[in-house]
């Protein structure tokens, strides 16, 4: 009989891990506000939000995967294939249908990735990496290595995700906000979300309690595929075109945002709102380097240090939690 008794202790009291990242973000914002005259201008805030969209969409999808105990390194390749399919389908059926079908392509690719990993029982990190190479090859085959563009009469409507639609805020920013809210509520307040936590916290215990763990893993890969497709369409919207090399390496930045936000790489712990904060931290850091005219080479160093600190903190908190339970 199916039950949710395997749900890990997610409804715990608020502690440092919950709000330490907020303090870090606040410190960065205060520093940049005092160091520059343009950081808090409305135009810069709008630009910050727009810069966070693509990585943010990839990161909120990756959050569900990591919380459930798996990694998906195929998301950027899924982004490329979905965007290519979306641009082509837009030329055939129009902007709205093309966008919807692009999301469907992302869901299908994510489902394929999850199914292959579940069936072969290969480590998700290696398995999704291999599948990402396959998807990149598919993208090249579909386009012949060329850039695929929408028609000139469709361009204005197609760029809806890149253009301001509400007080200067782009359609892509609104899409990201809606996606984050929906997935945050799904993970926090639904039976499916509790099962995602359960599988990530202790897959065997979840299975014994009646949770269909393979279906949970396939589902989170499918959701991640949809998020990747949405990110791909935002990128395509900005350029009016799609190509096989789109989004290379973005999956790693997305995972970095998830980890910096406090989601455990071991699974079973995390939240979408934390990931959003992680995305904003990375975006604000990049923006700060530009505003302060610092050498952006060191931005990678800062990002790497943040990831190392986040992983070390997660490991320390996990050990302390195990000792307190023991």
UniProtKB/TrEMBL annotation:
<feature type="transmembrane region" description="Helical">
    <location>
        <begin position="298"/>
        <end position="317"/>
    </location>
</feature>
<keyword id="KW-1003">Cell membrane</keyword>
<protein>
    <recommendedName>
        <fullName>Autoinducer 2 import system permease protein LsrD</fullName>
    </recommendedName>
</protein>
<feature type="transmembrane region" description="Helical">
    <location>
        <begin position="273"/>
        <end position="292"/>
    </location>
</feature>
<feature type="transmembrane region" description="Helical">
    <location>
        <begin position="52"/>
        <end position="71"/>
    </location>
</feature>
<keyword id="KW-1133">Transmembrane helix</keyword>
<feature type="transmembrane region" description="Helical">
    <location>
        <begin position="215"/>
        <end position="236"/>
    </location>
</feature>
<feature type="transmembrane region" description="Helical">
    <location>
        <begin position="168"/>
        <end position="188"/>
    </location>
</feature>
<keyword id="KW-0812">Transmembrane</keyword>
<keyword id="KW-0997">Cell inner membrane</keyword>
<feature type="transmembrane region" description="Helical">
    <location>
        <begin position="83"/>
        <end position="112"/>
    </location>
</feature>
<dbReference type="Pfam" id="PF02653">
    <property type="entry name" value="BPD_transp_2"/>
</dbReference>
<feature type="transmembrane region" description="Helical">
    <location>
        <begin position="20"/>
        <end position="40"/>
    </location>
</feature>
<feature type="transmembrane region" description="Helical">
    <location>
        <begin position="124"/>
        <end position="148"/>
    </location>
</feature>
<dbReference type="InterPro" id="IPR001851">
    <property type="entry name" value="ABC_transp_permease"/>
</dbReference>
<keyword id="KW-0813">Transport</keyword>
<keyword id="KW-0472">Membrane</keyword>
<feature type="transmembrane region" description="Helical">
    <location>
        <begin position="248"/>
        <end position="266"/>
    </location>
</feature>
